[in-house]
Each structure stands twice: as structure tokens, then as C-alpha cells.
Amino acid sequence: MVTTCLENKLLGGDEEKFTPFLLFSCLVASSGGLLFGYDLGISGGVTSTESFLKQFFPGVYTAMKQDANISNYCKFDSQLLTLFTSSLYFAGLFASLFSSQVTNRLGCRFSMRTGGAFFFAGAIIGAAAINVHMLILSRLLLGFGVGFTNQTVPLYLSEMAPARYRGAIFNVFEMCINGGILLANLINYGTQKIEAGWGWRLSLGLAAIPATVLTAGAFFISDTPTSIFRLGGDLQEASRVLQKIRGTTDITKELDDLVAATARASSAAATQNPLRRIVRRNYRPQLVMALILPIFQQLTGINLVTYYAPTMFRSVGLEESASLLSSLITRLTATACNLVAMAFVDRFGRRKFFFFGGIQMFVSQVVVGVIMAAKLGDHGVMSREYAKLMLLFLSLYVAGFGWSWGPLPWLVSEMFPLEIRSVGQSIVVMAGFLFNAVIAQSLLLMLCHMKWGIFFFFAGWVLLMTVFVFLFLPETTGMPLERIGRVWRGHWYWKKFVEDKEQAEVTQRN
């Protein structure tokens, strides 16, 4: 389905061909999203499985099954249980601090293989866990794997993709994340039916499969032409790879742009460390987006649905099997909407998807909050009709996320000039993991204390970030990667920062 959709979109007779080698390379790299997505889906499912809770978190199991005095919103409130989820993101945050250096020195392929190997080891230890300590160790190794892949894969895709189709290619990465979550939901739904109670081991252990796909596949793809230059490769090798991924020998203009960008980056690196450079005034727009967009992505509230949809559906009165089925429905919706975004984001632009998705998410969260406030008490059970209505609007919310704040923040890597691209992507990953970890660790506590108000809390953030996009995010659709800096010079606010750079260069030449 991925191949068909991409070919229909990208093989339409344009001068920029979407070659089989480029398709294969992008699919292998995007499989890093499977790792991230699979873990997102699996962790939420296994933490609602009774046999898993009984073995590792007996206090939560007792509260869920036997304590009638605990509020519906507080049944799963356990800091140890949330640490099972959030420890991955703390590890990913740590890995992102040095993954850019590994990528700069050894290339994207090496970072992908490293990430896959960490993830494979984490999956095996998780499946064999006999105590909480082994579970946490497993999560830490998984976090190292995700930290490397989330830093490397968007960087790789942005440098491999033709400018006019970069949005569609980035959506393959997001679709792999959604596909990983969907696969995890399907596996959780199936393994929950294993009566012997060891199904959660199968759920955790099967994460080794996408890890193997990425690790093995990275041996059969090429580094990007930009990365070849960065690693000291020659012009002939970069030219050969560029011709292979573009499907044409007419690559002179793009190659010249790459040579010029690499020369500027090398000169900049010789005079100043990239981390110090990115905080300079003329890189202010990129630094702000590197911090704000991944933070906003976490503040949409998607983690409430992704991590804890099964536990949340159990809280409103659904049984174990029905709660897992409900989370599966929301994920099918997200995957379908991600396909829509992949097909049209390069035609209509990033900003429009941000606007319409934001409005859809805001309305859906408000409606879900109203339903839970009116129809779910602290100790009651929501009627099946209202539970279905809540599921409908949660699906609409996930749909809005699927074509806006899900895939589009990953495109922030296209905004970085080469001299700060790797460190900029590390900042994106670091900011995302930091808030991912904070939200994951505090979400069940927030749900317990804020109750239905948590949906209004996240709806408020969605409204704020939609206004931010309207005011401060320029349109980057179709802009060549090496020339994308001009969008900042034409923006009403950011031009006062980047114009200083232009004036300084003119003064220096004179």
C-alpha cells in the first residue's frame, strides 16, 4: 500500500523521478518509525492487561479490580507504572544529546544500525523480564534505540527527498509510526486472549522484528550525498548517488548547491561549534521552531490517547477486550488520515493542514470533556451509547492529529541549513523526548486530579498552537533544501533576525 500510494503520487512524469532505489532507501529509513510507533502502542496495551499488572504492579491490579472507593480517574494512578512508560523517553533524551555527533562523524546509516541494535536488545530483555528492574532496563535500551533513530531518520529523509515531494516522504515516516502503533494494538488485542497469561511477553518481544528490519536494511542503502560530503567523500561518489536517487544525469544544479552548502558548513564548523552557532541571532527562527514544534506536538494531548487509551476506556466501564478494540479503532483512523496527508500535503501546503487539523482536534477534545463531565462520575459506569459517542470524537481527534500535528512537526528538519542541520535535529528530538517523558510520567496523575478537565487543558494548548502556526510558521512546501533560508527573509517577523545576517555578509565582502 505504501509503494502504490507513493508511486501514484510521485511517478507522474515529472522531471524529478522517484526511483526504486530512493523508494527502498526511504522505506528502510522510515522503518525507524515502526520502532517508535510499536513501543507507543505496546506500552499502553500491556499496562492494561490483567496478567501483566498482577505480576509487576499488583497494587494497581488490586485498585482496578477490588477497591470500589477509588475514583474512575485514579484507578491506574501509579508513579511506578508511569515510569515503565516514561523511562524510555528519559533514555531517548539522553541519547539525543550525543547522537548528532555520532551521525556527523560516522553517518546516518551507522546511527540507524546502532538504534536498531539497542532496540533489539531492549525487546529481548523485556520479553524475558521477571521483575520490574528488568522491565525498566528494557525500556532504557529501547529509549537509546529510539533516540538514535528519531534523530537520524528525519535528517536522512530531508536530505534524500526531492524538494517538491519532501512532505509526502516525511509522511511515510509518520505513517510507519502509526503503522507501528496499529500493529502493536492488533498484537495486544490478540495476545490478550492467551489464557495462560504470558501474552504480554509476546507483545514486548515482537518489537525485535522492526528492529531487525531497520538494522539489516541499513546495510543495503546509501548515505545521502550531503552526508558523503560531510564524511569526506569525493565529488564523484556523491554525484553517482545523487544520479541514482534522482533517476537522471541532469543533477548539476543540485550538486552545485550541495557543494556550496557543504563548503559553507565546513567553514562555519571550523570557526564555531554547531551548538554555539545555532544560538546566534540569525538562526533564531530555526532554534525556536526546533524547540516549540516538538513541545507543542506533545501538548496536543495525543499521549493520553496513544499511551493510555486502553486504560482510559477501561476507566469508563469497558472490559479488557473492548478497551483494546476501541484503541485499535482510533489507531486505524489515524493511519487512514496519515495517508490523506501523505497524498495532499505537498499540494495544499503545511499550514493548511495545521489549521484544519488544529480546529478539528480542539472541537473533539471539548466534546469528549463535556461527555465525561456529564456522564461519568467518580464511581459510576458510562452507558454504552455515550462510550461509543466518546469513541467517535476521540477518533475524530486522532484523525485531526493524523494529518496535522502528527507528521508535520517532523518536517522541522527541512528548515535547518546544513551547518546546523544535525545539531538542530538533535534539539528537536531532545525537546520532544523531554516533554514526552514529562507528559508520560505525569499524565495519569493529571487525569486523577483534573479528571474530565484534562481534555479542556489540552484543548487550550491546541488553540494556542494553532494561533502560533498562523502567526509565526512560514510555508516551506516545494522549497529546495539548500535555498529554504529565503522563507525566513520574507516572513513579517523573522526577517528582522535573518536580515542581520545578510547585512553582515555584505559588510564583510565590502
UniProtKB/TrEMBL annotation:
<feature type="transmembrane region" description="Helical">
    <location>
        <begin position="199"/>
        <end position="221"/>
    </location>
</feature>
<comment type="similarity">
    <text>Belongs to the major facilitator superfamily. Sugar transporter (TC 2.A.1.1) family.</text>
</comment>
<feature type="transmembrane region" description="Helical">
    <location>
        <begin position="21"/>
        <end position="38"/>
    </location>
</feature>
<keyword id="KW-1133">Transmembrane helix</keyword>
<dbReference type="GO" id="GO:0015293">
    <property type="term" value="F:symporter activity"/>
</dbReference>
<feature type="domain" description="Major facilitator superfamily (MFS) profile">
    <location>
        <begin position="25"/>
        <end position="477"/>
    </location>
</feature>
<dbReference type="InterPro" id="IPR020846">
    <property type="entry name" value="MFS_dom"/>
</dbReference>
<dbReference type="InterPro" id="IPR045262">
    <property type="entry name" value="STP/PLT_plant"/>
</dbReference>
<feature type="transmembrane region" description="Helical">
    <location>
        <begin position="427"/>
        <end position="446"/>
    </location>
</feature>
<dbReference type="GO" id="GO:0015145">
    <property type="term" value="F:monosaccharide transmembrane transporter activity"/>
</dbReference>
<feature type="transmembrane region" description="Helical">
    <location>
        <begin position="353"/>
        <end position="374"/>
    </location>
</feature>
<dbReference type="Pfam" id="PF00083">
    <property type="entry name" value="Sugar_tr"/>
</dbReference>
<dbReference type="InterPro" id="IPR005828">
    <property type="entry name" value="MFS_sugar_transport-like"/>
</dbReference>
<feature type="transmembrane region" description="Helical">
    <location>
        <begin position="321"/>
        <end position="341"/>
    </location>
</feature>
<keyword id="KW-0813">Transport</keyword>
<keyword id="KW-0762">Sugar transport</keyword>
<dbReference type="InterPro" id="IPR003663">
    <property type="entry name" value="Sugar/inositol_transpt"/>
</dbReference>
<dbReference type="InterPro" id="IPR005829">
    <property type="entry name" value="Sugar_transporter_CS"/>
</dbReference>
<dbReference type="InterPro" id="IPR036259">
    <property type="entry name" value="MFS_trans_sf"/>
</dbReference>
<keyword id="KW-0812">Transmembrane</keyword>
<feature type="transmembrane region" description="Helical">
    <location>
        <begin position="386"/>
        <end position="406"/>
    </location>
</feature>
<keyword id="KW-0769">Symport</keyword>
<dbReference type="InterPro" id="IPR044778">
    <property type="entry name" value="MFS_STP/MST-like_plant"/>
</dbReference>
<keyword id="KW-0472">Membrane</keyword>
<protein>
    <recommendedName>
        <fullName>Major facilitator superfamily (MFS) profile domain-containing protein</fullName>
    </recommendedName>
</protein>
<dbReference type="GO" id="GO:0016020">
    <property type="term" value="C:membrane"/>
</dbReference>
<feature type="transmembrane region" description="Helical">
    <location>
        <begin position="110"/>
        <end position="130"/>
    </location>
</feature>
<feature type="transmembrane region" description="Helical">
    <location>
        <begin position="452"/>
        <end position="473"/>
    </location>
</feature>
<feature type="transmembrane region" description="Helical">
    <location>
        <begin position="80"/>
        <end position="98"/>
    </location>
</feature>
<feature type="transmembrane region" description="Helical">
    <location>
        <begin position="287"/>
        <end position="309"/>
    </location>
</feature>
<feature type="transmembrane region" description="Helical">
    <location>
        <begin position="169"/>
        <end position="187"/>
    </location>
</feature>
